[in-house]
Amino acid sequence: MNTHPDKRLIASTGRIAAEHLRGVVKADRYVSTTPYRVAMVVADLLSAPGGTRERQMLRGEVFHVVVKEAGMAFGYAEKDGYVGWVDIGDVLSHPKQTPTHRISAARSYAKSTPGLKTMGLVTPLPFGTRLVVTAERDGWSRIAWDGGQTTRDLFVPSGHLVPIDTVETDPASVAERLIGTPYLWGGNSSFGLDCSGLVQAALHACDITCPADSDQQEAAFADAEGDPQRGDLLFWKGHVAMVTDPETMIHANAHHMAVAYEPIAQAIVRIESQGDGAPTYHKRPPNGDPR
Fold it and tell me: I need a surface site. Which of 2, 142, 144, 146 has the fewest CB within 10 A?
C-alpha cells in the first residue's frame, strides 16, 4: 500500500470515503459513489465549499459524487480522478442520454434556433464539450440541453462537432488550435487554460491518458532521449510546455497571459532569469492508449 497517497486523488472527506478506498484510507463510513454528468458549460472543482478553484470540468464529463452537503457535492472527476467540491446545481440537469459528440473547434456555441442568420439566445461552448446530438439538418445539429421537468433543445453548427469516439492523432496540433486562449490558473477550458490544462486537453483529445497537474504529468511519462521532438513535454518546477518543433514550444503561461508559442532557448533563459530555475525534465508521452 502506498504510504504517501496523492491527496488530490483520494475521494475522502476524512469522515466519508468512496467504497473503493476501503483498506486504503481510514474513514468513519464508506459509500458507493453516484455518477453525474456536468450540466454547466464549465464547472469549477473547488478545494472546499467556498474554497479555491483547483481544476475544472466541462459539460458532459462524469463526476462521481461521494457526499452532498449544504448545496455542494464532494467527489472526483472520472477523466483523471481529481477530487474536489462542486456546486450541486452544476451536475443536476444534464440530459439522461450519453453524449454522442464533442466540440472539436477551439470554441463554438449553442443557439436557441437553427440557421446561420436566425436570431436566438447564444451559449458559448469550449473545445471538448460533450453533447447529446438528436438530429442534424442543413448544417445544424439539434442537441438535448435540459434534463429536468422542462426540457429544451439547442442547435450547434455541425462543422464544429465530431463523434464522441473520434481520436485525434497529433497532440501538438490540438494545442496549436488553442493559441490565444487566456491564461487561467486551474483552467481546463478554451475560455481559460493553465499550463497543465492545455497539455491534458491536447493529450486526452488523442486518447492518451494524462493526469491533471504538471507534477503528476511529470511523474506519469517516460524520460525522452535526444533533441526535443514535436509532442514532447518540457517541465520546470510548477510548469509544463509542449514542443511543436525542435526550437519552439507552446504553453499556457502568465508571461503572455495566454496560450502562446515561445522559442525554447528564449523560454529557458527567461524562466531562469525570473527565479524559477532551469528545466527539470524532458518527457515523451506515448503515441496513444485507451483512457
Answer: 2
